[in-house]
Amino acid sequence: MGETIIQKDRKGFNKFRWSLIIFFLIVNILLIFTYKDPNLLAIDSFLVTALLFILAVLHGTERYGKKNILIFFLITWAVSFSFENLSIATGFPFGFYHYSPSLGLLTVPLIIIFAYFAIGYLAWMLSHVLTGQYTKKLEGKQIFIVPFIAAFLMVMWDLTVDPISSTLQGLWIWTYPGDYFGVPISNFFGWFLVVYLFFQIFALYLSRYDSIKAEKALKLSNKPYWGEAAAVYGITALGTILSVFYQYNDLTVSMALITVFTMIFVAILAVINIGENPNLS
Question: Which of 20, 156, 162, 229 could make a disulfide contact with 125, Cβ separation 3.0–4.6 Å?
C-alpha cells in the first residue's frame, strides 16, 4: 500500500514537470521566429533561462531537498560570480570580455548566474546517470569522478553556445577574439576549471551531509524522473541547433554539427542508460 501511494504521488508530480518540459520544447522551437527582432530575442532568452532554472529547482528539490539544492545554488553563484568578475578585471581564467547592456546593468548579469546553476544541475544529474550513481550517496572515488564528468558535460554546452551568443548576437564581447569562431581557447579551459570547482565543492559537501531514506530512494528509482534531465539537456541542445534559422552560415552550421555529436550524443546515451537500468521502474 505504501509503495502504491508513493508511485501515485510520483506520477502526479512527474506529469507537472513533464508539462513544463513540453512547454520548454515549444519555447525553444518558437525562438526561431524571434531571431530577427533583438528585443524579442532578449525576452525569449530570459524566458528560456527562467524555465531551465524552474525545472532544475523542481527536479533538484525532489532529490536533494530545499536546503541542499539551495546550497548548490549558493556554491554555484559564489564560484561563478567570483571568477566572472575576476576574468572581466584580469582576463583570468576565461579571457578579457564584457557583457552587453541588453543583459542588464550589472558587470555580471544575474541571468548568467541562473544559467550556471540550471545547466550545471543538468550536467550534474546526467553525470550521475552516466556513472550509474542515480540516487546513491557519493562515496569513495565517485566523489571526484562525478564532478569531473559533469564538468565535461557543462563545457559541451558552452562550446556550442558561446560563439553564437558572443560573435553573432553580441551578448558578451571578447576584447581579444580568439581562434574558435571568435572565442578565445582559454575560455573553455577556464570554464572547465570553474565548473569543476563548484561541482567538486558540492560533491564534498554531499559526501558528508547527503542522506536518502529507502522510501525516498524508491520514489526516485523511476525512469521518467531521470529521463527529465536527459530531455531538458537535449532540448537545450536543440535550441542551439535551431540557431541555423538565426543566420545560416559557417558558424551556426558548425555549432549545430558540434552540438549533435556532443550534447545530443550525451542525451541519447543517458536515455539508453536509463532505459536499460534494471534497478529503475
Answer: 229
